Amino acid sequence: MKILKIINNNIVSSLDTKNREIIIMGKGIGFGKKAGMEVDETQIEKIFRMASEGQTKRLEDLLNDVSLERVQLVNKIITKAKEYIHEPLQESIYITLIDHINFALERKKQNIQFQNPLFYDVKRLYKDEYRVGMEAVKYINQTLGTDLPDGEAASIALHLINAKLGKEMPDTMNIAKILQNTLKIVQYFFNTEIEGNSLQAEYFINHIKFFSQRVISGEMLESKNPAIDQMISENYPKSSQCVARIASYILKEYKIQITQGEVTDLIIQIERITGPKQEGKNSML
Fold first, then answer.
1. Residues 15-60: pLDDT tens digits?
2. Does domain 66-166 have CATH number 1.10.1790.10?
C-alpha cells in the first residue's frame, strides 16, 4: 500500500483494492514519510474503512486533533464491545465514541459535570451495552489515571446502541424514551413492576424495544386481519385501554399515529405479561 497523504506522525491514508480511501493508524507510521511512499505494514495497528467520503473526512479531522493514546484506548473499547454485542456495529462508532470520550475527558479536566437523564433506564433496559460502558469507564480510569463517573457508562452505551441500530443520537434518545415511557404506562395502568429478571419480563422489554424502533423508523406493523384485531380488542379490554394510552402518548409527543397492526401486537404482548394477574380472565393467547 502506498501513502495517499500524511495526516500526522501516527495517521496516514491510503487506497484499498477497490480504490476507496482508508485511514491507517500506527505509532510513528507517518514519521519522516511522504505521499507516494510505501506504508510500513509492521507498524499498522488499525485500518479504518468508513462508509462515505464525508465520514472519512470527519474521522481524519478527529484523529488529527485527538492524541494517539486516546484513539488507541477507544479502539480497544470497541474491540471489546464486539465480544459482548453480537450484532454488527457501524464503523461510524469510531467517530462518535472517539469524539465523546475525548470530550468527556476534557470536561473532567475542567470539572464540568454532566448527568445523563437516561442513566437508570439505559442501565436497566440495555444491559449488554451498559456493561460494556461500565467496563470502558473502568478501563479509561485505570489507563489514564482519571475518575470519570459511572454516568459516562450510559452515554457510551447509547453510542453503541446508535451504531447497532444505525441511528443518529436524537433517534436513539427518542427510542429509549418511548421504551421507558411505554413501560411506565403499562406498570402504572396495571399497578405492577416489570423487571428484566425473568425470561417473561426480558421478552416483553425486548419486544417494546423493537416496537419503539419501528415507531421512530416509520416501519410499523400493518394489520393482517381486521376481524382478528376487533376480536382481540374486545376480548382484552383492559390491555386495549392501556394500548390506547400508549398510542395517545406517542401521538402527543411525536405526532406519530401507531398502526392497527402495532395496536393489536401490543395488546397481545401486554396481555401476556399482565394477563395472569387479571382476575377471572382465561387467556386465549
1. 998 899 999 999 999 999 999 999 999 999 999 999 899 999 999 9
2. yes
Q: State CA 245 to chain mean position distance.
A: 27
- The answer to whether the beta carbons of residues 38 and 61 sit under 8 Å apart is no
Query: 211-250: per-residue pLDDT in tens?
Result: 999 999 999 999 989 999 999 999 999 999 999 999 999 9
Could you count the other beta carbons within 10 Å of the beta carbon of residue 29?
Answer: 23
* CATH class entry, domain 182-277: mainly alpha
Domain 1-50: CATH class, spelled out: mainly beta
Instruction: Give yes or no for residue 176 having a pLDDT over 80.
Output: yes
